[in-house]
Amino acid sequence: MSSNWNVYKLFKSGKRAKAPLHTFTHDGDHPGAVEQFNQLEFESLVKKYGERIKKFEFRVVDASADQDRIEVSAEEQFSLARNAVLSSIIREKKIITKRSLGGGLIYAKETGWNWQWAALESGTNKFVQSLSERFKTHREAIAWMKEKIAAS
Questions:
Q1: Per-residue pLDDT averaged across 62-91, rounded?
Q2: Global confidence as pTM
Q3: Residue 67 falls within a domain, yes or no?
């Protein structure tokens, strides 16, 4: 028996769009529907909306199931907000490298064996530049980040 599946766009905040972007029919379970979407249905979205759609993430939901949006956990919310703050600081400092950058909390030789938020090379986590002051404890570094999140 075939069933309909809804495809929702996911925002950077982790929240799902209110209305489905696409609907398709699939005979089978959720993993099979996700596979069908990735292999077949996604191409129709690219044709309809253009190449820029490839940068988004999507969630496939059984159309007969509850369509309520699932809230993001507090840990996921903190992670998303932390990444936004670190990205903002990296842009403000105009850090330019040949490799892509990310941010993170490190405890390393480059920080004098203190905790510090830093710009890091993606993939290698190599220290590039400090983004915060140094902290004696992990707890102090997290508190600093929570203050920055609240101020943003």
A1: 82
A2: 0.55
A3: no
